[in-house]
Amino acid sequence: MKPYPDVVQLQHASEQRLLLFASAVRAGFPSPATDYHADPIDLNAYLTQNPTSTFLARVEGDSMIGAHIEPGDLVVIDRSVKASSGRIVLAFVAGEFTIKRLMLKPDGAYLEPENPKYESIKVNDPDMGLIWGVVVGVVKKV
């Protein structure tokens, strides 16, 4: 049994490669002169530089929609990246995992949501919260 059932480590993910279009794709009017060519890309290599310390987690809730992290998205979390003020982190607070923006202020550390419906969480002491990793990417379906 996996210790965290909703966690998938990237090193155990499929090694199937997808084709990557050779040129960037404009979100505006397309260029008719673009050459259509595709090269393979390994999404594991694209999403992380540290596969042994990186995992995916599925998002529930809407507290981070202002950061374009929405329910059903997969967040890419790297445990080897140092958490710093302004980074989005996976934290373990009051017995639950949560994704919030870490803000270090003169009066303490805060876990800030990106949705005005939610309050900030002030971490008063080290036993109250633990940073598990830094969010380094988001995978979403449209």
Automatic annotation (TrEMBL):
UniProt entry tagged with the keyword Ribosomal protein: no
Positions of the Peptidase S24/S26A/S26B/S26C domain: 23-136
InterPro entries in the record: LexA-like (IPR039418), LexA/Signal_pep-like_sf (IPR036286), LexA_repressor (IPR050077), Peptidase_S24_LexA (IPR006197), Peptidase_S24_S26A/B/C (IPR015927)
BP GO terms, sorted: DNA repair; regulation of DNA-templated transcription; SOS response
Entry-linked SUPFAM superfamilies: LexA/Signal peptidase
Keywords carried by this UniProt record: Autocatalytic cleavage, DNA damage, DNA repair, Hydrolase, SOS response
Similarity-based family: Belongs to the peptidase S24 family.
Protein name: Peptidase S24/S26A/S26B/S26C domain-containing protein
UniProt source species: Pontibacter oryzae
